[in-house]
Amino acid sequence: MGQPSVPPVPPLAPPSLPPxxxxxxxxxxxxxxxxxxxxxxxxxxxxxxxxxxxQLPQMLPPELLGAPPPxxxxxxxxxxxxxxxxxPCARCKAILNVPHGLARFNCPQCGVDLAVDLSKxxxxxxxxxxxxxxxxxxxxxxxxxxxEVAIDVEREEDEGGTVGETFTDYxxxxxxxxxxxxxxxxxxxxxxxxxxxxxxxxxxIMDDLEKSNALSCLQIETLVYACQRHLHHLQDGARAGFFxxxxxGVGKGRTIAGLIWxxxxxxxxxxLWVSVGSDLKFDARRDLDDVGASCIEVHALNKLPYSKxxxxxxxxxxGVIFLTYSSLIASSERGRSRLMQLLQWCGSEFDGxxxxxxxxxxxxxxxxxxxxxxxxxxxVLEIQAKLPEARVIYCSATGASEPRNLGYMVRLGxxxxxxxxxxxxxxxxxxxxxxxxxxxxVAMDMKARGMYVCRTLSYKGAEFEVIEAPLExxxxxxxxxxxxxxxxxRVELLSASAFLSEDKSNSSQVWRLYWASHQRFFRHMCMSxxxxxxxxxxxxxxxxxxxxxxxxxxxxxxxxEEAVTKYGLELDDFVSGPxxxxxxxxxxxxxLPPKPxxxxxxxxxxxxxxxxxxxxxxxxxxxxxxKVAKWNVAGDSDSFEESxxxxxxxxxxxxxxxxxxxxxxxxxxxxxxLRCSCCARLVHxxxxxxxxxxxxxxxxxxYSCKEKTDEYLKxxxxxxxxxxxxxxxxxxxKTKILDIIRSLDLPNNPLDDLIxxxxxxxxxxxxxxxxxxxxxxxxxxxxxYQARSTKEVAMEMVNMHEKQLxxxxxxxxAIISEAGSAGVSxxxxxxxxxxxxxxxxxxxxxxxxxxxxxQFGRTHRSNQASAPQYRLLFTTLGGEKRFASIVAKRLExxxxxxxxxxxxxxxLSAFNYDSNYGKRALMxxxxxxxxxxxxxxxxxxxxxxxxxxxxxxxxxxxxALVSVxxxxxxxxxxxxxxxxxxxxxxxxxxxxVGRFLNRLLGLPPDIQNRLFEFFISFLDLVVHNARNEGxxxxxxxxxxxxxxxxxxxxxxxxxDSLSGxxxxxxxxxxxxxxxxxxxxxxxDERQMDGVAYVNDGFYESRREWMGRRxxxxxxxxxxxxxxxxxxxxxxxxxREMLAAELKNKYKKLSSIDKASKGWQNEYEVSSTQxxxxxxxxxxxxCTVGRRLQEVNILxxxxxxxxxxxxxxxxxxxxxxxxxxxxxxxxxxxxxxxxVGLLIPNAAIESVMQDLSWVADVEG
Length: 1259
Fold this sequence. Notes:
single chain; alpha/beta; Rossmann fold; 6 domains; 8-stranded mixed sheet; 7-stranded parallel sheet; 34 helices
């Protein structure tokens, strides 16, 4: 950008003469500056310039730029590269050599951004029949045949290999300090493929630990890396934090105590320990004593006043402040908050320890769209922001169950300054696109940087079983009648609400309560339906010499206490939670019209009218209204006069001057004017007809008002009578509904029922949050309510007392809820009397997986004599799987990022419906039921040959969706569509799988199961299509092959400045094939073992492609009607083939010589080319069915280079190559395990160009 010349200042001239205009330089243009408006001379060819006076950068306007230079003719190709595709540029028409697999690039001639779409390639050429080669002067290529076998293999390769064993045994890889952990500990195999940084920190308390053996090698490793991490600062200046993700039993509490003791030795004597319950303060005291830190005091914040903690009155100068997350957001009546109290105690320069124990309680800081962040999450964020030098520890086995819940872990440095994610939302978006595999990569990154440990007790020996409890006939009938009643109640509420349409806010509140109660009601019903099965399982376990732990979430205490308040302490039977819930809903929320007020007589009406219309003597109605309005507004003024402005006073005086009779319009005889107390009219007595001659009272009213008042009285009486009639009718309807509810056969409270059937409180230890319970009287007739606490045991110690009775073997059945089981250990501990094997029955799955893991961890802990048996109970109702759906979704993530043995509980994945695929399936199903789209699947119980059955199902399904409020604004059609139901489903419901499964519970069992099966059919179709299109997220996949060898030296492409961890590119040579000898041995061994089937053998494809046939070995699976397939080029196929598909595509070979020759030929050819043949469009970049492959994996740190990789992959032609795929492989030569991102061969050059630098790994 140049500097234009400024015309020279002319010499002074006589005032009468204008200054001469200087001549501009030859060829230059004169323009006015846009800033100072001075005249500038712009040299020829200069388009951008800076004004030398005001320094404003600017450019010539378009009209002064002149005509654009003539476009060059399309350049001729300098030479054709036969290894690339020749395509014309869309702008300059230059013939370009485009590498195979490159989807986006810039034209080297004109610089335009170009994209290649092979599916639309033909449209660039003169005729539809012309090929690219013909257009470029080459002889035409015959049309390509569709190779069905290649398509099958490509789909399998896109989906990836099966996931291998999830966990491996764990030992600290770089530390050999301390004794081994008392129980086997495991780590996810993907995390085990990553090495943490070299430990450089030396513990001051190491000598004490070696003498006491208080901490195991795992716990010491955590201390070293946490302290080492705390020595670093993030780029925003805050001290780096550490995340302990260990599962139950590894000893997180004792590890935290060790960290506090280590910091104490360095003079950092103040610590904050935030946990879930104040009772855990005793555990904190015990853990500190165990590590030798008896001198450190533990102060419970909830027992302290709101004054300054270090004041003389309180006197806490150092030690550990133990508080709960609820205390963190508490405040006093005077407005002092616990958070400010803690910040004052710590001080701005605080560099001690802040421990967020069980930090998943701070979740939902970054909530779903439409909801608000929790106050707890915001408080956790604020205390970190106010104490930038604090040494933060995040501690939770389940803190990362959802990527969204990482939002408060700001000290990990995964986003923000110095990362490729400027904000947490960017980080979250990348993880959402990456799926389950991306979560695993985050965990690997954190471990590689030395900020994360995640070990868990091995689940070896623990047994998981999903048991479906069939509904008994009585429960089935109960459920059906309840569903019908709820549908009728909805119609009744709609009708009753029609009279109250003006109160929309109240109406919406009623419907929110209705659907919340609807969900709670049927959840109670589902839980009650499982009680008989739970009792049977419990009694069977007790008979086998085991003990039982039953887990549930809700206790029904609120309904029980309401019933006791209403009916008294002694009842005929246990309270029915569902019934009390229904009664409360109807009693408190049934919309009744307002009850009309009673009016004693005419005098009261006149009094009401008089008060309403009475006026101040001498002031007009207009002035009175003004004064009242001003008085209301200026309520804080010192006097009434001050609240009136001058204009108000003027208008008042003006009104008084013009008081005239409204009949004769005469201003005379003002003193005789009469004022009507109703309408405020002013009239002369003589102007009235007949004239008024009687005395005038204060409540005098004119003749017209008297007539109107009488008419009003009659109309009012009629109106009040009608309102009263409506009110009484509505009240009668409400009473009838309440009577119907009381007559319904509904189950008792499940918790009370369980305790009663398993022997009563004498035999069952209850660890819940409820204060009282109903127990059966000694005579067996009726029940009585009694408090759980006694004179000997206070309420806050009841659960600990019950736990001790269970661990001593005095009670062999324990029932736990979320509220009562936090921090409780119920495992078969070797140190207690009751070492019987635990059978853990989940009667009610919790709402989220973090709660589920906490519940599972009660019975699976360290130092146990035997691992528990888990029995997950579900009813056969399709809708109840909604609760399993939520848990399964989070368990899948937990297994990836923290702990949770997917080998032990694979069946839970079958219930994961609340996914992207589930949302797509739901929308397709809704559109099909509403007859907006044709049905791609046949509904259950219907036949494609009989369309009537399908139409009948659609009618039933539509009616069912109407009854549960999903289809709205329904009308019944007339004309040719007479009788059909029409309506709409709002957009927010179209993808809400949770709401669908929730509302499904409120349908009769037969209908809900058919509708649920219909939804599953759509889900299977969506998943099938995603697999075919290469879009299915299968998480981490294993690359299996006969030979996997590292090719050359790995390349370092990035180094993290904080930890020194690197991003490394590995290149492997993979041989996937199976030789003829190996295939023949497989078949021979099967025949020798006597397990061969008649259809086992070698097959060849029925069709030829490029003059070749494909060969396979098919071995029938036992009694399944499917075959395990082996191919010469790729070995064992991932999916089994159906018998019908095998028969249709292949024919069995009778000649072993022909099979041998064909197999060996395909084995040899596949070493150098893909299944599409030598003329494949992608050339050497295509790997479909190729036996020998080059595989590129980017391992180590991935997050710092995530954006570059995503950008490079987005340019790829094949859909499956654009997706971030996390893979795992193990070399066959030295068993080196690598986990990382798979980079397709076609994309490797683009990825390397986008990354910063490459260097050989030294040594």
